[in-house]
Amino acid sequence: MSILNLFLKTKIFDNSNIFLIRKLFKIFKFFFVETELKALPKINYPLTVIDKDLENSKNFKIKDSRPYISYVHLPDLLEVISDNKQRIIFFDYGAGNLSLFYYLSRKFKNIEYFFKDQLIIEEKVKKIIENEKIKNFYLSDNVITHEIDLLYFGSSLQYIDNYKNVLKSFFKKSKYILISQAPFFNNAHYKETIIIKQLNMHPNINYLNLFNFDFFLDFMKKNDYQLIERNVNKVTKFLNFKNFNKNKFKDIDMYDLLFKYKKDEK
């Protein structure tokens, strides 16, 4: 496995024939590999099919259709949080497309949806919203002035280089923070984050943070957010970390973490 990891880290892997890599993936099913990087690359998670994704989002305007959701219980959680409120403020950070918006708008007539993603996506989404005259949808700027019922990072927080600053911008303003399908491990004697390389989307190569759970939990606690739910995320079939040293990366997996702001309850 160590020899395989060495190969996965190289530019040779990055530039290898796509059909060869797909065959290797079927055999080994490798998803990630540890790197020696100290920070995420400035250009990360390149977008290739934006227009197609946005066009396909319209399919979820239709009754009974359900998009891919990295936290499968999201509608149920919103139902509980909503609790017959006149409006529920939902902030989707790293939304990607409009699939979740269309789906949740069908289920919750009182939802106000805030959308945040890369600028190139936001520019295209803005045109769609204007052309379709969609209400209760807002493109977020960098100043958060609204009180948020649920801040949702749907498999996105790990791709943000300055993730702590992003979270801090929402602290005290968000009643709940849901971080879904994010990689965590336990090791009190190791670093706060590790940069890992994502392999399963080859030839697109992405990098992401692997979070040390105790450090992350301590950061949230210091800012008055209490963990109220932690589950292993099994949404992506076959996803694994079997090529990682389990003595070094204890309990490594994809997790869903739900936090609640507790300041007002002290």
Structural class by secondary-structure content: alpha/beta
**Unreliable residue runs:** none
- The 3D shape can be described as globular
Mean pLDDT: 92
Strand content: 25-35%
Number of DSSP-assigned strands: 10
Short description:
The protein is an alpha/beta fold and 266 residues long.
Which key features would you list for this structure?
single chain, 266 residues, alpha/beta, ten-stranded mixed sheet, 9 helices, 29% helix
General description of the model:
The protein is of the alpha/beta class and 266 residues long. It has helices at 2-8, 11-14, 18-28, 50-57, 74-82, 99-107, 119-132, 163-168, 213-222; strands at residues 32-34, 88-93, 111-116, 137-139, 148-154, 174-186, 193-198, 206-212, 225-232, 250-261. Strands 1, 2, 3, 4, 5, 6, 7, 8, 9 and 10 form a ten-stranded mixed beta sheet that branches. The longest helix has 14 residues, at 119-132. The N and C termini lie far apart (49 Å).
